[in-house]
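Dear Dr. H.,

I hope your travels went smoothly. While you were away I took the liberty of generating a structure for the chain from your last submission, since the lab meeting agenda had it listed for discussion. I wanted you to have the full record in hand beforehand rather than looking at slides cold. The sequence, exactly as received, is reproduced here:
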Amino acid sequence: MALIWNADVQIGSEVLIMSPVRDVCLSSNDVDEMISGFERKYGVSSVEFFRNQEIRQRLPEDDVFRWEALIDHRLALRESYQEVHSGYLAHLSPSKEIRSDVETQELLAA
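The corresponding predicted structure, in token form, is as follows:
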């Protein structure tokens, strides 16, 4: 976790001291667990959360913002994973030996 300090800000004769901003890197599992926490807390799925405007209006604004941000983060992580995985598979050199379809699928799944 990186810690980034904001500079002090002077407005007129007042000096405002900014608190540290924390840079947190979440794994896909972390994000999924946090989303599940919101689903348990409010008793609705993420799909219901997005489809039903009434549900969203009843929730605290900060929780709505966090839930949306986590879902966006999960989508970005999945897209990144797919790009990396596809790039990895594209750079695999074809094997000189012939493998069965089962063996090939097992290697690609790794």
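Two observations you may find useful: The mean pLDDT is 80. The first strand starts at residue 2 and ends at 4.

With kind regards,
E. W.
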